[in-house]
Amino acid sequence: MRLFLAFLLLGSVYVWQHDDELRLAWRQSQPGYTPPQVTLFATSWCGYCRQMREYFAAEKIPYTELDIETSARGKVWHEQLGGGGVPVTLVGETVIRGYNPGGVSAALASQ
Q: Is the CB of residue 40 less than 8 Å from the CB of residue 49?
């Protein structure tokens, strides 16, 4: 009985920690699923921007990148979102500031 309860507890902790990822995987498996538009506002020299690119590649998340230093459109949109530092990720209409894979995962799961 104790072993069963231990496995039940471990399973619950796993689901709690990976809830956003599991919800996203379920949504992606549904017929007619269309992924939300993901836009990364970044610069070429930013280390956290590089980490966001690596995260998108590892998770196979399609995205559009706008360099706020070389793209006039990227600079204007970044300023309209409140400016500040980079990276800024836009998932649908949700703005995520900084290197925040958990925030991106949650935003994708809620779309």
A: yes
The structure's pTM equals 0.70
Cα separation, 50 vs 34, in Å, equals: 26
CA distance 42 to 67: 5
Mean pLDDT of 8-17: 55
Total domains, the chain: 1
Cα separation, 50 vs 55, whole angstroms? 9
Containing structural domain, residue 68: 2-110
Say how many C-beta atoms besides its own lie within 10 A of residue 23's C-beta.
15
pLDDT digits (tens, 9 = 90+) for 76-99: 999 999 999 999 999 998 999 999
- CATH code of the domain in which 64 resides: 3.40.30.10
Reduced to 3 states (helix: H, G, I; strand: E, B; else coil), residue 38 is strand
